[in-house]
Write a structure and sequence with these properties.
The protein is an alpha/beta fold. 24% of the residues lie in helices and 27% in strands.
Length: 331
């Protein structure tokens, strides 16, 4: 850790109003990748958002044990503060302990919901920056993914969570395991009529669209320039979804992409039967990116469905889209 003094020169006088602390500042082009897991490693399940019981995560514990991992359960599991997994202080304390414990090689967030944004600014990343580990999850965990990528240039894993293990497809769980254990995933899916064909490569960023918008203007806000942007969402009114897409466009986040990958857009709905929006969520996106020329892939199997394939946020990917199929491949 080092400090940098910021001085202001005004009328030949030097003022020293603040000290800025750089906890971890690798070159912007350099992504830090946590070490791959190996059999016998310890992982810990914690809840940074909505409450969850030990019984609900037992299927995930069984799966992780079958991968020959030692599974620890954080103190936030089973705690309850209305809809949250304990108070902000309790969730922060549990997450911080997992971050600081060098014996823990990966942190698996139990579920999403809401609450991670309430604690992210209080997390101390100093020990983590010296010994980064995989942080796994999606939905509300987009807060952590985006913060790690934007502030610490550190990769993380967008993947299913313990609350969903019992219903996930085998492909979902295998993709999570593969990346954690150091393999490079490749997913090939059927063509979508709204796709825009092409070939691209770049670092992948993104997550849940609602959370990406929520992080706009904060230190956790993502830079999409020359990157492959991925997003997914669930349970939104179509007019609200259109508003978020317009935010993406007006903020410049759609302008200079290497490519766009659209995941599951689940349970999108009209305000009511008398007020249809007139376009599907996919059509809203297609219209918004129509003026650009980068490849666009619709229907990628990641997000709020049982088929939720893992993606490395900050990872290097190539994307190929043709008339028959699309392939997103780690490189």
């Amino acid at each position: 850790m080092f400090t940098r003094r910021i001085d202001f020169l005004i009328s030949n006088k030097i003022f020293q109003p603040c000290i800025c602390t750089d906890l971890f500042s690798p070159p912007m082009s350099e992504i830090i990748f946590p070490s791959s897991l190996k059999k016998g490693d310890t992982v810990r399940i914690v809840a940074t958002a909505r409450k969850i019981s030990l019984e609900e995560i037992q299927p995930a514990i069984d799966v992780l044990n079958s991968w020959e991992l030692n599974v620890e359960v954080g103190e936030s599991i089973g705690k309850e503060n209305f809809q949250l997994a304990g108070s902000d202080e309790e969730r922060l304390h549990d997450f911080q302990n997992a971050m600081d414990d060098n014996s823990v090689k990966a942190i698996i967030c139990a579920r999403g919901g809401y609450g991670t944004v309430r604690i992210i600014d209080e997390v101390d990343f100093r020990k983590f920056s010296k010994n980064p580990k995989w942080i796994c999850g999606y939905s509300d965990i987009t807060v952590i993914h985006s913060h790690l990528l934007s502030v610490y240039n550190t990769a993380s894993l967008h993947c299913t969570m313990p609350v969903s293990f019992s219903g996930n497809t085998p492909e979902s769980l295998q993709s999570m395991k593969s990346i954690l254990f150091g393999e490079k995933n490749s997913e090939k899916i059927p063509a979508n009529k709204l796709n825009r064909e092409g070939i691209a490569a770049g670092k992948l960023c993104g997550g849940n669209l609602s959370l990406l918008q929520n992080l706009s203007g904060t230190v956790s806000d993502i830079d999409t320039t020359d990157r492959i942007l991925f997003f997914e969402d669930v349970d939104e009114y179509l007019y609200h979804f259109d508003r978020m897409i317009q935010w993406l466009k007006r903020s410049g986040k759609l302008e200079n992409l290497a490519a766009l990958v659209v995941g599951h857009l689940s349970k999108m709905k009209n305000l009511d039967e008398k007020n249809p929006f007139g376009k599907s969520a996919e059509e809203i996106i297609a219209d918004a990116v129509g003026e650009y020329d980068y490849p666009v892939c619709f229907g990628y199997p990641a997000g709020h469905e049982n088929d939720n394939r893992a993606l490395m946020i900050g990872g290097n990917y190539s994307l190929t889209i043709n008339s028959g199929w699309s392939e997103l491949k780690m490189t």
